[in-house]
Amino acid sequence: MPNALHDMRNLLVTPPEMQAVDKDAAGSGIDSFSLMRSAGMAVSAAALRLFPSAARFVVFCGPGNNGGDGYVAAAALTASGANVALYALGDTGKLKGDAARAHAAYGREAISIELYEPQSQDVIIDALFGAGLARELPDQAQEIVGRVDQAGLPVVAVDLPSGIDGRTGEIRGASFTAVHTVTFMAAKPGHVLMPGRGRCGTLEVFDIGIPARLVAARAGGLGINVPAVWRQCAAGLDPATHKFKRGHLAVFSGGPTSTGAARLSAAAGLRAGAGLVTLASPTEAIPVNAAHLTAVMLKEIGNAADLAEWLKDSRLNAFVLGPGFGIGEKARDFALMLCERALVLDADGLTSFKERRSELFDRIAASGGQVVMTPHEGEFQRLFPEIAADGKLSKIEKAQAAAKLSHAVILSKGPDTVIAAPSGRAVVNVNAPPWLATAGSGDVLAGIIGAHLAQGMPAFEAAAAAAWRHGEAGRRTGRSATAEMLVENIAPLPEESAS
Ligand SMILES: NC(=O)C1=CN([C@@H]2O[C@H](COP(=O)(O)OP(=O)(O)OC[C@H]3O[C@@H](n4cnc5c(N)ncnc54)[C@H](OP(=O)(O)O)[C@@H]3O)[C@@H](O)[C@H]2O)[C@@H](O)CC1
Ligand SMILES: Nc1ncnc2c1ncn2[C@@H]1O[C@H](COP(=O)(O)OP(=O)(O)O)[C@@H](O)[C@H]1O
Ligand SMILES: [K+]
């Protein structure tokens, strides 16, 4: 695992991994109650920072350690002079361990949660359930979520908004929608996967003092897609370079009425840094493509024999196949010929293998090439129906399973794009604005990945860096983004110092 993922800010730790970290911390002699105290104090500080003039802080405490953090926060808020009311879910007499100790230390009355009546100036501290949520949110808690939503009250969540599954980001029955979430040591998948991400508000990762080495030792290779993940593979270009050293990317065009998608990929590939980009076009689409291209070159490739001849040029080192290409045998034949080099298989290129996927997966395994597949949800479902249908798996786990099965790097698109390698390594992209969901946006992404592959980046880093640059391009473009505008706004790769 690269060092980048050892940086706590970039790590994602699943709830079971975090539980193991807790045990290791206790085993190494760290006082678990002092960790809870740090956690609760951090929540109290965040609440006071965000709502310095709140009329009342209402703390909801659950039956486990998340509730324990709530008792500590309530005590700290009270000590700071704030007006605090505390409502408990379940029998406080049944609290155990650190949570029981935090409850005792709070020392004031806990009101039963069903008695909570919203007041218009309330600020909610949600400490019902965190990483330990093991099933649907109890009915009583769901009802409170409804009351808080209806009253439109701001919520500060402890660890996770209660109701969000920390492993998957799914909503277990109902969940609070927080304006701010304070989590501890490292973010969890539920903070970055949808729909959970949309309910966390701003995310604060607070260091409660567990040594980083204990967290890193249990972390399983998941991270957030920050430049540190791939920067070491994107070193600045050699000033003595020439265009062939920056790689030669080829993008395959569809027929005369569906050429735009491939041209978008090609334009994005050039803009993203490939030295040369050639659009490979069937004969009948040559006129329309010729009429639209300038810096991108054009080559007539009608059939597999033409392609075989062209591939004798070993400088052609990366390919994008799929956008607007058409579904069928030609796509399959071409893709199978390209697996040995570096290939982005997208759109129709993926769908063409719906009934014949093992041919593709076997070829990828045998070829040793760098292959990235970029399915959106529908394409993922077509190629990996059994994985897509497994309701127990998170989006990260689905991408990991698909990567393992196909031997390719999988970039599973959406607002929470996941990039996974066959080894299990995976990152979640978090910089994409919603207006990236515009026609042709995926074609632009495929072109950026192609440019990275052409420059010699390994498939995982090429895909992760492309998702990030695509997101940045979206931000630079703004809400009115079209795919053409995204191409214009692809910025240079960040310098060494960016994180
Ligand atoms: N990470 C760290 O280093 C630190 C973490 N800390 C904090 O600990 C939190 C994790 O604590 P936790 O493990 O006690 O889990 P938590 O979310 O309180 O819930 C578990 C309880 O709820 C119950 N239960 C579960 N689901 C239920 C349901 N649907 N309906 C009803 N009951 C349900 C479950 O009972 P059971 O499933 O056994 O029946 C159990 O009693 C974490 O989020 C963070 O805030 C800090 O204190 C400092 C250090
Ligand atoms: N809500 C969203 N927020 C951020 N990015 C999104 C959202 N929805 C889609 N995207 C991104 O937009 C792109 C759409 O690609 P794709 O589905 O292939 O569309 P198209 O075929 O029109 O190009 C993907 O990169 C995807 O990750
Ligand atoms: K919570």
Automatic annotation (TrEMBL):
Subunit note: Homotetramer.
Matching Gene3D superfamilies: 3.40.1190.20, YjeF N-terminal domain
Protein's name in the database: Bifunctional NAD(P)H-hydrate repair enzyme
Domain YjeF N-terminal residue range list: 18-216
InterPro entries: Carbohydrate_kinase_pred_CS, CARKD, Nnr, Ribokinase-like, YjeF_N_dom, YjeF_N_dom_sf
Cofactor annotation: Mg(2+); K(+)
List of residues binding K(+): 66, 126, 162
Reaction catalysed by this enzyme: (6R)-NADPHX = (6S)-NADPHX; (6R)-NADHX = (6S)-NADHX; (6S)-NADHX + ADP = AMP + phosphate + NADH + H(+); (6S)-NADPHX + ADP = AMP + phosphate + NADPH + H(+)
Binding site for (6S)-NADPHX: 65-69, 130-136, 159, 261, 324, 376, 443
Family assignment from sequence similarity: In the N-terminal section; belongs to the NnrE/AIBP family. In the C-terminal section; belongs to the NnrD/CARKD family.
Keywords of the record: ATP-binding, Isomerase, Lyase, Metal-binding, Multifunctional enzyme, NAD, NADP, Nucleotide-binding, Potassium
SUPFAM superfamilies given in the database record: Ribokinase-like, YjeF N-terminal domain-like
PROSITE patterns, sorted: YJEF_C_2, YJEF_C_3, YJEF_N
Chain's role: Catalyzes the dehydration of the S-form of NAD(P)HX at the expense of ADP, which is converted to AMP. Together with NAD(P)HX epimerase, which catalyzes the epimerization of the S- and R-forms, the enzyme allows the repair of both epimers of NAD(P)HX, a damaged form of NAD(P)H that is a result of enzymatic or heat-dependent hydration.
Pfam family, one: Carb_kinase
Cofactor binding, note field: Binds 1 potassium ion per subunit.
The protein's Enzyme Commission number: 4.2.1.136, 5.1.99.6
Limits of the YjeF C-terminal domain: 226-497
Binding-site positions, AMP: 413-417, 442
